[in-house]
UniProtKB/TrEMBL annotation:
DNA-binding feature ranges: 124-222
UniProt-recorded name of the protein: Two component heavy metal response transcriptional regulator, winged helix family
Cross-referenced PANTHER family: REGULATOR OF RPOS (PTHR48111), TWO-COMPONENT RESPONSE REGULATOR (PTHR48111:SF76)
Domain of life from the UniProt record: Bacteria
Coiled-coil spans in chain: none
Record GO biological process: regulation of DNA-templated transcription
Length: 225
């Protein structure tokens, strides 16, 4: 599981990162709102721990931007602001939970695990893009009513692209999410598997759904036409 910590207090950020990594998470840190938003847009995180009072952009602005593009990523607001009105504002803005400083790490860890479980429950069982249908629970995919004969890795790759349809996903993020390994950026394993997936998903049909963004990564979307 990958977690983004957006926290400008260095000691708190280091404490969180160390604790999360000791409990099996991979954690990144951003120390200002603008950097945090950039990480959130492109990092493919399962959860975000977000301070409200941040330089450059505050947590509410970041949360609003995240929810415009992504209804699934779990977000925990972590802040010294303990008024009921602040908590209500955070939850209404789309946060999954709200924890007030000072806090016990054990409570934060329990809350992160809880909102991650909720997030998995929110994942749709069926994703449809143009004439492509993906049954996530049944591990089946069809296009124009025809079953696609996908390997487990190909299905996982397609599922990642579909869950973030319309977003360009970098090769590094794909390697981390599909293979659970940080591949050297020079490897072509992602490109090889993408080639094989395209041969099954796109080549037999007139309209392509997987597109390459040169120098960046791949995106699954229906461009029409």
């Amino acid at each position: 599981m990958r977690v983004l910590i957006v926290e400008d207090e260095a000691k708190t950020a280091a404490y969180l990162r160390k604790g999360l990594e000791e409990n099996g998470f991979t954690a990144d840190v951003a120390t200002d709102g603008e950097t945090g938003l950039e990480f959130a847009r492109h990092g493919g995180y399962d959860a975000i721990i977000l301070d409200i009072m941040l330089p450059r952009r505050n947590g509410f602005e970041i949360l609003d931007e995240i929810r415009r593009r992504d209804s699934q990523t779990a977000v925990l607001l972590l802040t010294a602001r303990d008024q009921v009105t602040d908590r209500v504002a955070g939850l209404e803005a789309g946060a999954d939970d709200y924890l007030v400083k000072p806090f016990a790490f054990s409570e934060l860890l329990a809350r992160v695990r809880t909102i991650l479980r909720r997030g998995h429950a929110r994942q749709p069982a069926l994703i449809q893009i143009a004439d492509l249908e993906i049954d996530l629970s049944g591990h089946r995919a069809t296009r124009a009513g025809q079953a696609l004969d996908l390997t487990p890795k190909e299905f996982r790759l397609l599922s990642l692209l579909a869950r973030r349809a319309g977003d360009v996903i970098s090769r590094t993020v794909i390697a981390e999410q599909v293979w659970d390994i940080n591949f050297d950026s020079g490897t072509n394993v992602v490109d090889v598997h993408m080639y094989r997936l395209r041969a099954k998903l796109d080549d037999p049909f007139s309209r392509r759904l997987i597109h390459t963004v040169r120098g960046v990564g791949y995106v699954l979307e229906d461009c029409g036409g």
